[in-house]
């Protein structure tokens, strides 16, 4: 389950170094300087370093940015300068602030919106997002600016509409060359809208990606109820025909309730789907939402068997609702958080792995079960600022961000194993 709206930032440009100097000298008479890479990628390191601070004293570092909607965001963390007057955010623990502990990108992912309690940072569609970092130690201050973007090159972006294309979606890709690459169909969760951020992130690493909306969008159903799987099949055919896409290496990535559609496609559309990424997944087909009074999905005009039970990998009220992933037409990667409180995605994932292990004809499969992570590990991409629903805490977000770089590496390695990717 991801935020209802995400937008990708493109055209970040090459990396450089930015430095800011003090507004006043420290008590030791030294100039205080903050340095950071002038441009970084969203899923890469940040490298903020302060020098010339008073040794052993508190140093407060804050970061401010305005997203594409004009919403102001801010983070702040307090560190203790070492005996040389240095704070290196990559290795120095924050003792208090919007995050604590050691995290090189904590000053970005822990940003909070100013003046609102619930929001997602909306990245700019074109051009980099700008960030200002300010350092205070006693009466001395220093500042610098940096930009954070998706990729050093510009992504191409194309919208698909229900009227002209038969589905609602956004295609993200690097400029097409002569080589064809694995591609990804991205299916979001119970928000129903497009996870453009994830699709653009895949594209930045060389995988053309199509994010689709399947409800809660103009012209589409307003609830997750009786959604035809043929809708996604049409999108898969459209994606397969795009320049730079190898139709024999298309992966479906689904998060939360969207994992059900992704798994069903992997099982029923082996000629179209050649790999599966399930994030915070289920291994069973659930009922419609919000009322649980019918099927969530249909195939050939008939309801896909579903369960009304919750956190039941066996679907004891209707065992036919268990998705037979051993019949998937390509490798399977499942990602879950052991601290998932929205549903027990790791129990679902382990049940799916057990069924795959038991079938000698099953495709290659792996599970990334992350201790401490919750449901929103399904974002897959690290470093995104997030203020989530009330049942989700800042501490949970911090736990997820600690494991997200490893999750993202495993996802990219899974795709790279299909071969033919462009450099990210």
How would you characterize this protein structure?
The protein has 424 residues and is an alpha/beta fold. It folds into 2 domains: 17-149, Immunoglobulin-like; 156-416, 3-Layer(aba) Sandwich (Rossmann fold), CATH 3.40.50.1820. The chain contains 7 helices and 24 strands. The chain has an 8-stranded mixed beta sheet, sandwiched between helices. Strands 3, 5, 6, 8, 9, 11 and 12 form a 7-stranded mixed beta sheet that branches. A hairpin with a 2-residue loop joins strand 11 and strand 12 (140-149). The radius of gyration is 23 Å and the shape is globular. The protein starts with 16 loop residues before the first strand and ends in an 8-residue tail after the last helix. Residues 43-151 form the Acyl-CoA thioester hydrolase/bile acid-CoA amino acid N-acetyltransferase domain. This is Acyl-CoA thioesterase/bile acid-CoA:amino acid N-acyltransferase family protein. It holds the Pfam family Bile_Hydr_Trans.
In short:
This protein is α/β, with parallel strands linked by helices and 424 residues long.
The helix fraction, in percent, is 10-25%
Euclidean distance between termini CA atoms: 26 Å
Strand content: 25-35%
CATH class placement of the largest domain: Alpha Beta
The average pLDDT score comes to 89
Task: Assign the CATH topology of the largest domain.
Answer: Rossmann fold
Number of helices: 7
Second rung of CATH, namely the architecture of the largest domain: 3-Layer(aba) Sandwich
How many strand elements? 24
Major sheet, described briefly?
Answer: 8 strands, mixed
Say which CATH homologous superfamily of the largest domain is assigned. Alpha/Beta hydrolase fold, catalytic domain
Could you say which overall geometry the principal axes of the C-alpha atoms support?
globular
Q: Give the low-pLDDT segments.
A: 1-16
Radius of gyration: 23 Å
Number of domains: 2
Q: In what order do the strands lie side by side in the largest sheet?
A: 13-14-16-15-18-19-22-23
Structural class: alpha/beta
């Amino acid at each position: 389950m991801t935020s209802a709206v995400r937008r990708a930032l493109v055209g970040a440009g090459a990396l450089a170094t930015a430095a800011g100097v003090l507004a006043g000298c420290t008590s030791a008479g030294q100039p205080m300087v903050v340095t950071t890479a002038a441009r970084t990628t969203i899923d890469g390191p940040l490298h903020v370093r302060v020098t010339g601070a008073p040794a052993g004293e508190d140093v407060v570092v804050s970061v401010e940015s305005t997203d594409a909607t004009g919403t102001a965001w801010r983070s702040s963390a307090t560190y203790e300068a070492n005996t040389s007057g240095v704070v290196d955010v990559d290795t120095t623990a924050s003792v208090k602030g919007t995050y604590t502990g050691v995290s090189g990108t904590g000053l970005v992912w822990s940003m909070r919106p100013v003046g609102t309690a619930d929001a997602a940072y909306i990245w700019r569609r074109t051009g980099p997002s700008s960030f200002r970092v300010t350092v205070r130690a006693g009466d001395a201050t220093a500042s610098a600016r940096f930009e954070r973007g998706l990729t050093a090159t510009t992504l191409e972006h194309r919208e698909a509409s229900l009227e002209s294309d038969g589905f609602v979606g956004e295609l993200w890709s690097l400029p097409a060359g002569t080589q064809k690459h694995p591609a990804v169909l991205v299916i979001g969760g119970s928000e129903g809208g497009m996870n453009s951020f994830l699709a653009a992130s895949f594209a930045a690493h060389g995988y053309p990606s199509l994010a689709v909306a399947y409800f809660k969008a103009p012209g589409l159903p307003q609830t997750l109820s009786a959604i035809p799987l043929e809708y996604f099949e049409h999108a898969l055919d459209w994606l397969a025909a795009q320049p730079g896409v190898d139709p024999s290496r298309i992966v479906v990535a689904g998060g939360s309730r969207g994992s059900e559609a992704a798994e069903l496609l992997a099982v029923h559309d082996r000629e179209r789907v050649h790999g599966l990424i399930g994030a915070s997944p289920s291994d069973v087909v659930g009922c419609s939402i919000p009322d649980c009074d019918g099927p969530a999905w249909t195939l050939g005009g008939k309801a896909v068997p579903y369960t009304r039970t919750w956190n039941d990998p066996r679907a004891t009220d209707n065992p036919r609702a268990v998705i037979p992933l051993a019949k998937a037409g390509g490798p399977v990667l499942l990602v879950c958080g052991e601290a998932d409180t929205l549903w027990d995605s790791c129990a679902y994932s382990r049940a799916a792995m057990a069924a795959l292990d038991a079938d000698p004809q099953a495709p290659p499969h792996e599970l990334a079960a992350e201790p401490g992570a919750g449901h929103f590990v399904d974002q897959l991409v690290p470093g995104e600022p997030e203020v989530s629903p009330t049942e989700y805490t800042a501490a949970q977000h911090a736990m997820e961000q600690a494991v997200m770089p490893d999750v993202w590496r495993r996802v990219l390695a899974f795709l790279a194993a299909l071969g033919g990717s462009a450099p990210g």
